[in-house]
Every structure is written in C-alpha cells, then in structure tokens.
Amino acid sequence: MSERPRTAHPRLPGELAHGLLSDTDHSWPVSSSDTKYESAYVSLRVDTIVDPTGGEHPRAIVQPNGAIGILAIDEGDRILLVEQYRHAVGRRLLELPAGTLDVAGESAADAAARELAEEADVVAVQWESILHLLATPGYSTEAWEVFQATELSAVPDDERTTREAEEADMAQWWLPFDEAVDAVLAGRITDSLTVAGILAAQVLRTR
Q1: What pLDDT is stored for residue 113 in this prediction?
Q2: pTM score, two decimals?
Q3: Of 104, 154, 180, 193, which shows the fewest CB atoms inside 10 Å?
C-alpha cells in the first residue's frame, strides 16, 4: 500500500485527508476460489482471502457484466427516464436508460449508444463520460460508467428495436433537470446509478 501524508485529526479519531486522496490498487492474497454458479449474465464464486496477519476469511463474490447508464438531456433541459419493473424489489423504478456490457468487443461508449436506441428510440450526437463508480463493492465486481448524451433525435420508426419482457412494458418520461434533482433528494428516484448520474451532472453544472 502506498504511503500517504499522515496528520492526525486534532480532536477525533482518524487522519486529515488531502486533495489527492483516492482509491488504491491493493489486494489481499486469495488462498482458494470456488465457482458456485456461472452464466452469460452473472457468476458467483467464494474466495478465501488472507489478511495481513495471516487470517483467512471466506467472501462471496458476485460477478455481473459491467454496465453503463445514459443521462440524455434534450434542448429543453429535460432528462430522459425510463420506468421499468424490477422484480428483485417488486417495484417499477424510474431509471436512466442503462444496460450491461454483454456484447463481445463493444466499447462502453458504443454500448451506451446501443442501449439508448434500444430502450428509448433515441440517438445522440454528443457524448461525454461523466462518472465511474462501483455498484456494491462489498460483494460484487460490477463497475458502472455514466455518459451524458445531448443533441438528441428519434430513431426512425422502421429501425426501432422490438422490446421484450420487462422492457416491453417500459414507459419513457422527460423530466426537467431541476425536478429530477428534487426527486432524487426526496427519495422518489432511488435507483443508485440514476441517483449518482443525476447528482454528478448537477455538481458539474456548478463548477
């Protein structure tokens, strides 16, 4: 682990952080690994990790494909949200258009363009990556990237994707950006990728 400058907090436990504080590349050794489930979408394994004192600890690791989300903003400063049923929580959630990196060789940016067209029948001219985050690093390897998409237009009717299963029941909504921020803070929008993308865009606007 790289050494950081260390200055004790004057009154509370812990140390004062400096501007360049960041995540670090440091892993504990794995003494054994056992794959319990594997599919094209997700796998589950149990690793036994070794801490710095030599103690061993089993950890379940879920390995989904990575994912991307798209913060699409129209000329009226409205953002695109899709409303989709999510069975794991038994609710219809308001989300940014999003999808998994499940096409071999496809870049994150290309996946974002594909998902925006598939889920919302929308294409964009301008793309900007605004956020990288880890979904649930306590037990999952899943990494996300959020793109902001602008200069939007509709996919021609004869080129639109036929959506299936939960996606066939999607609704698309255009919500003023300020109202989307309010909805996040009021707990009316709770999907974590969507919350992170909206708040990251809000921060970028104030810089």
Answers
A1: 97
A2: 0.89
A3: 104
Active site residue 167: yes
Cβ neighbours for 111, distance < 8 A, ≥ 6 positions apart: 68, 99, 100, 101, 103
User: Looking at the chain, which residues constitute the CATH 3.90.79.10 domain(s)?
Assistant: 67-206
Mean of the per-residue pLDDT values of the chain: 93
Report residue 1's pLDDT band, with 50, 70 and 90 as the boundaries. very low
For the chain, give the number of residues: 207
The residue type of 19 is G
Please tell me what DSSP assigns to residue 145: E
Q: How many degrees, rounded to 5, is the angle at CA 134 between CA 130 and CA 136?
A: 145
From the candidates 142, 145, 167, 179, give the one annotated as an active-site residue.
Answer: 167
Q: Which CATH fold topology does 67-206 show?
A: Nucleoside Triphosphate Pyrophosphohydrolase (3.90.79)
